[in-house]
From TrEMBL:
Name of the protein in question: Uridylate kinase
Iron among keywords: no
This protein's UniProt keywords: ATP-binding, Cytoplasm, Kinase, Nucleotide-binding, Nucleus, Pyrimidine biosynthesis, Transferase
A Gene Ontology molecular function term of the record: ATP binding
Role played: Catalyzes the phosphorylation of pyrimidine nucleoside monophosphates at the expense of ATP. Plays an important role in de novo pyrimidine nucleotide biosynthesis. Has preference for UMP and dUMP as phosphate acceptors, but can also use CMP, dCMP and AMP.
Residue positions binding a ribonucleoside 5'-phosphate: 49, 71-73, 107-110, 114, 151, 162
Location within or outside the cell: Cytoplasm; Nucleus
PROSITE patterns per UniProt: ADENYLATE_KINASE
GO biological process: 'de novo' pyrimidine nucleobase biosynthetic process; nucleoside monophosphate metabolic process; pyrimidine nucleotide biosynthetic process
One Gene Ontology cellular component annotation held by this UniProt entry: cytoplasm
Major site of localization recorded for this protein: cytoplasm
Length: 211
């Protein structure tokens, strides 16, 4: 199985998890956060899609099937991809002297065991940003995105399965972090700019300021 042992110290990084249903706007808002707050954006889904098509990957077929079915890929694979991407970023683009690298981990953790495993073996999260969005809105956005995204899972059937996984498996992660007082919850139905204003207010209240 993939090796997820980190090649860096948890002391050198700040991790913000970015959660929300499929199509809630995580990728869109991440671009803003990178620009203003100096985050390195790591999308678990993007890393899995890149691994799926990487020549020589032993996980290509497995990842393809899991993503199309809206299921959660076994966590060892995803955590190894994230941990390696963090180490690569620290090696190639270290943060300014005297500051910690900031990682915005988008679309992860989606299952309780992933959250526990990542926080134990890689690094605890500082804040959990959650985009709260009704299914009807997410569905409309995803079907529109599907016209151009080329993604295997932006079709009505996969979307239905992803919603189910989100409600049954991923919402319990958000609820668990909520009990720990870590969640900044943002209503995601406004315009991109309106949502971003609320995101900024929320994370700045948790001590994350522009960089
Ligand atoms: N606030 C918004 N209002 C309208 N459309 C949005 C908004 N935020 C994102 N979108 C669009 O909805 C789709 C899904 O957004 P995306 O950021 O890819 O979501 P996620 O990363 O959570 O799956 C994209 O096509 C994006 O352009
Ligand atoms: O930690 C993760 C993140 C994503 N995925 C898979 O990747 C898909 C797409 O996730 P992504 O975050 O790219 O898109 P979203 O569903 O949020 O639009 C999910 O449905 C899962 O099948 C996964 O297995 N583990």
């Amino acid at each position: 199985m993939a090796d997820s042992t980190p090649r860096f110290s948890a002391q050198d990084v700040t991790v913000v998890f970015f959660l929300g249903g499929p199509g809630s706007g995580k990728g869109t808002q991440s671009a803003n956060l990178v620009k203003d707050y100096g985050f390195v954006h790591l999308s678990a889904g993007d890393l899995l899609r890149a691994e799926q098509i990487r020549e020589g990957s032993q996980y290509g077929e497995l990842i393809k099937t899991y993503i199309r079915e809206g299921k959660i890929v076994p966590m060892e694979i995803t955590v190894a991809l994230l941990s390696n991407a963090m180490a690569d970023s620290l090696a190639t683009a270290p943060p300014p002297a005297g500051t910690k690298a900031r990682f915005l981990i988008d679309g992860f953790p989606r299952k309780l065991d992933q959250a526990v495993f990542f926080e134990k073996t890689v690094c605890p999260s500082e804040v959990v940003l959650f985009l709260d969005c009704p299914e009807e809105v997410m569905e409309t956005r995803l079907l529109k995105r599907g016209e151009t995204s080329g993604r295997d899972d932006d079709n009505a059937e996969s979307i239905r399965k992803r919603f189910r996984t989100f409600v049954e498996t991923s919402m319990p992660v958000v609820e668990d972090f909520e009990k720990k007082g870590k969640v900044v919850s943002v209503k995601a139905t406004g315009t991109v700019d309106e949502v971003y204003e609320t995101v900024k207010t929320g994370i700045e209240a948790r001590g994350v300021h522009p960089r």
